[in-house]
Amino acid sequence: MSTDMQKESGYDAWLHYHRYCKAENLPAWCRVIVIQAADEVLQTAAAELQLGLTSMFGQQPKICTTPVSAPFITLGTFREHSLAAERFSAEEQAEVNAEGYRIRGIEVPEPAHSAFHSKADPQGSYVTVAGQTTKGVLYGVFHLLRYLQGGLDGKLKPATEESLQAPILDVLSNPANPIRMINHWDNMDGSVERGYAGASIFYDNNAFIPNMDRLRDYARLLASVGIQALSINNVNVHDVETKLITAAFLPDVAKVAAIFRAYGIQIYLCINYASPIELGGLITADPLDPGVAEWWQAKAREVYTAVPDLGGFVVKADSENRPGPFSYGRDHADGANMLADALRPYGGRVIWRCFVYDCKQDWRDRKTDRARAAFDHFQPLDGHFRENVILQIKNGPMDFQVREPVSPLFGALEATQVLLEFQITQEYTGQQRHLCYLVPQWKEVLDFDTYAQGKGSTVKRIVSGALYDKSASGSSRRKAGVHEGCGGFQEAQTPPLLKPANYGFAAVSNIGADANWTGHLLAQSNLYGYGRLAWDPELSADEIADEWVRLTFSGQETDDGRADLINSIKQMLLDSWNIYESYTAPLGVGWMVSPGHHYGPDVDGYEYSMWGTYHFADCQGIGVDRTIATGTGYAGQYFPPNADHYESIDTCPDELLLFFHHVPYTHTLHSGQTVIQHIYDTHFEGAERAARLKDTWISLREQLDETMYEQVLERLEHQADHAKEWRDRINTYFYRKSGFADQKNRPIY
Amino acid sequence: MSTDMQKESGYDAWLHYHRYCKAENLPAWCRVIVIQAADEVLQTAAAELQLGLTSMFGQQPKICTTPVSAPFITLGTFREHSLAAERFSAEEQAEVNAEGYRIRGIEVPEPAHSAFHSKADPQGSYVTVAGQTTKGVLYGVFHLLRYLQGGLDGKLKPATEESLQAPILDVLSNPANPIRMINHWDNMDGSVERGYAGASIFYDNNAFIPNMDRLRDYARLLASVGIQALSINNVNVHDVETKLITAAFLPDVAKVAAIFRAYGIQIYLCINYASPIELGGLITADPLDPGVAEWWQAKAREVYTAVPDLGGFVVKADSENRPGPFSYGRDHADGANMLADALRPYGGRVIWRCFVYDCKQDWRDRKTDRARAAFDHFQPLDGHFRENVILQIKNGPMDFQVREPVSPLFGALEATQVLLEFQITQEYTGQQRHLCYLVPQWKEVLDFDTYAQGKGSTVKRIVSGALYDKSASGSSRRKAGVHEGCGGFQEAQTPPLLKPANYGFAAVSNIGADANWTGHLLAQSNLYGYGRLAWDPELSADEIADEWVRLTFSGQETDDGRADLINSIKQMLLDSWNIYESYTAPLGVGWMVSPGHHYGPDVDGYEYSMWGTYHFADCQGIGVDRTIATGTGYAGQYFPPNADHYESIDTCPDELLLFFHHVPYTHTLHSGQTVIQHIYDTHFEGAERAARLKDTWISLREQLDETMYEQVLERLEHQADHAKEWRDRINTYFYRKSGFADQKNRPIY
């Protein structure tokens, strides 16, 4: 693909580094990069910096290992690079955690940054990017590139050629979460489960794709937003994928690991719990069987011989027909710990998914409640897991619906490490044919206060480990004038945490072999946003949208139109989740999608299924009674006061009303509207708003590259049409079922 | 497969020829078969007779071409075989049509058969099977074998060893329909569209299956029930199948044709209407374009060079996204006639399907009515088609639902030849996992009086051509003492119709590569029944079931249990359609199945689709208003008095009420029950009756081969469970929607 094609198609995403500075104005400090004797990751950092600067300024900076007399940029760790060490005090260095960084520019104006005096003199003035580790330095380099490209200086224009001469930069940034992971649901036949952006970039025809160039490009995207862990195969491990941990595929796994290692990313493999039977010829996979444990120990030795820094195994067990310890009368702790013991000698982790429920439920049975399942299965096991086991918990109790309450398992595990699982791929949120910027949804989850240990026990503090880390100072380290910051997992004093704790984020990838990675170009914002949020959950949805739009559309704008372009696209993103929610399943009840592929409206699609996903609509009312008093008792899985808020129909928030209560259509919401009229109103308005997304985009036509314009337009046109289909099917369903007319007499069929 | 395995698995179906006579009791006349100088089909007839006799009697009869002094069987045509000619008078011979036969036994008792004196003397006594053609003789041989195996003498036992010595047989049988066709919806990748009995027996991996032995076994089954036409590929002609009419595949087509030719069966190919573009590189497939016509003429020459007796082409055009003449502003007559002209020099036919409707309907649009489509498209074209064009019309206006009215196109075409299309494969009737003997449904269609030319204008007389054949004597030629008879297409005098007219039956096959051909062993009865009915529409569902059960289960019984076995299985068959209907979509409204695969209940599965298949249920009522007065006007497509009967809610039969009318749930049926209570009652009862099918089968366990018992039991158990699912989903749907309680207070959810 030519460079032009890449830019136009969106292949370069937020790393396309639009050139905006004439070569003759190139700032002096951008002509030389001085690095320490480099490991692989630092070499990557230098090369990325060189690439970005070359693209933006039209001249390739030199990379050298000794200081020059002219201004320069220098990269290195405090410990191994004297230029880095001398730029920051011991205290300043100690504030950086294992994967954090500091950046200091040539000048620091008074008085805001009085603590950080520039030590550069005019002859040897330099910009420093430094960290405890070269990974930290790499992340710092991407920060610097974002700054230079996006003009992240609070103005709506990129850094000007003038301001570039003496950059005002003094940054401390630590990732809040030690684990920042992406899960690929890629199958080796080349398909991607719940993939909406083409085929797998890893596999085809039951083998690894021979040309792995694209994996490197993917690693760049991930590292640029701080992702450092990647599981490369579907959690549903089928026959061929079961063999990934055998000699048949380990050499290829090692090749992939090498590509991502250069970008500071550890890979993980999803394993089949029945491997001892399917691969080993044993008659059991019972975790307490000594032969099984030995088999896994030998397997771990083999796997780590091939890939010494493998992150570990991701396991979906006893879930949706996958094998697991239940088959042998064992529990999840038995299952996970046996694997953990096998991986421990190599520093490997077991990431054990909590998506366990009865997927053969009888729809006639109103007592069983899938929402309860994760808590009921795992809360009693709290404290039973090894220290290299991490439980991966989906954000909500069901399955990535457009609206769910937060999983009550967050906060319910005090002595067990957890990962929060989001879904970047838009399985239930429009499948990258509808626009749905998910960061606002994720923010609500992260900011949710579980009250697990009193007020302030937010999900973000639970999943970063901060809530349980008595030595950590708290959730936010943001300081005045410092753009980014925060961090929960760092220890208070040196030495910093070089072996981070096992907490953080995981999320299902939304990328595939489509030229623009995500099918819908604007869906790139979700991958970007996920990475940024995993680094810093304090960032707002607006800030992240702003960054992503600036980086992605830089070079598209005229000077006059840029503010309009950025604000318009940003507003499209920020509105999109609410728009999508408004024309799909109402008031938190979820589902109402076509079974199987999950695309498009089907109100009763899951109503009579075995999946535990019901709305119970009849001619009188709708909703699931999950109260303690008269329902499934799910509300009682929350700490007070959340439990009480959800239990009471008076305090339950409107947007979750039907998740917790079965109410008549005539029930009046806090909004003052009845449930049935709310359904009609939101669906009519939602479809109109979806159409306006398209209109907004059309209004930006002159400012956009044609191919980018066209590819997004096609999706937005589909969305506008499909939103009408949603509107009419949902409204008609409820009109036919309830008999209530729309107060505004709009067409319902 | 060993012979034992075959019998147990059901592979031999109704041709398994159970041995029931000791060799020493072998009747003398069964020891020698005397045939005329034989063509291929007569050789087949002799070989089949030899095979059957050997199997039943344990001794292989000799085949010779000259009479012997002992009793014998002789086979031949009146014209070429003097033994056949001398046994029947000129008048008797003239009563036989092109594919009919006469059989005369050794003795004919007085007085019932006074017209048929035996001409055999004790020394040279013989049984004669004769016809105008060797195909007729072949069908006569299968008749004789049925008689010998099944004891089709009106008693419940097989022909006794005593009665065999001098068989009482004097049969005249003519097929009512000149075309008796099976359509295969087989794809060359080995899949079968709407196939429920395993993979294709014709194709695998985009090629013909190398070992064609099974095709010969299939030809035997078909010929034994009088099938003489077979289309071998799916009417939806995909890329690879488009090439069947090219040198790539014609040699294989010729091989297949040869196999079926030996059994008197002509093969047909389904063609892609866009072939001139896809194969010929033309820029159009416009039927009025001279280049297109020339392309097809050359193609016909090529195809008929490879397969000189190819039956012709079957065409699905302008239907469900298939290409057709509409693309060029032409009509179906233009399209069909152009192909017909190309095939005419070779005696080929064009079978043009009338399954044409708008498959992109907007569900909001209540004016468009898919049921109207076939009539609206084709009735105006009556008389516009060439004489070698046949329109193939599905039995109902929709698509093979468990209950539909008869297509109003039957009788509406006075000057156009037609085929009636049934669906043997149980797409909408339980997919061969539920028992559904379809002959009773087909009988209702055949006996339906269209009143097209006054009373007596039954569908069976329309599709046999009899209604339009002023020279034919009528629909039934059954005579006292003659087991089979009837025939509409034969001419009154000699010479008989050697080139039959283009009328008859077609049906979608239900067979596949499963060992027992049809998945559900009892579903063999539908293939058998279809063939028998195509031969003689006067046969009752009961008679056909009786034949099939005797032939299939002969040898299973003890003497004591045989009557019970036959009656029990026969009753299961006869009840099964009504049972299936009772627990599925009610009162003729149809659909309510899962979209796509069409299996299992989904009341709203097609309610908001583009397929034109709606029930319009709301909280007040249900049904489609197809009246002239207030609805789509579909009822007006029938001749009076049918139109009036359907138009009026008072005279519309209950079982079709919701097909023609939208009524409140409180509407009282002719049965005296309300619609809603009828729904509840039939669904509760239907599920109970389905469970009783299983119980009946279990009661027969001792009399059945174990493998046959087990394979059917597994299906009946599934059916009993699945019928409960249907019951509960349908009942719950309507209870939730209507709010009406069951009068008997049975569990609804």
UniProtKB/TrEMBL annotation, chains A, B:
Group of enzyme by EC: hydrolase
Keyword Cell membrane tagged: no
Matching InterPro entries: A-glucoronidase_C_sf (IPR037054), GH (IPR017853), Glyco_hydro_67_aGlcAse (IPR011395), Glyco_hydro_67_aGlcAse_N (IPR005154), Glyco_hydro_67_C (IPR011099), Glyco_hydro_67_cat (IPR011100), Hex-like_dom2 (IPR029018)
UniProt EC number: 3.2.1.131
GO molecular function: hydrolase activity
Domain Glycosyl hydrolase family 67 C-terminal as annotated: residue spans: 518-746
Substrates-to-products reaction catalysed: Hydrolysis of (1->2)-alpha-D-(4-O-methyl)glucuronosyl links in the main chain of hardwood xylans
Pfam family, any one: Glyco_hydro_67N
Hydrolase found in the keyword field: yes
Domain Glycosyl hydrolase family 67 catalytic, residue spans: 168-475
Alpha glucuronidase N-terminal domain: residues covered: 13-144
Keyword annotations from UniProtKB, A to Z: Carbohydrate metabolism, Glycosidase, Hydrolase, Polysaccharide degradation, Xylan degradation
Record family assignment: Belongs to the glycosyl hydrolase 67 family.
Subunit structure: Homodimer.
Protein's name in the database: Xylan alpha-1,2-glucuronidase
Organism: Paenibacillus farraposensis
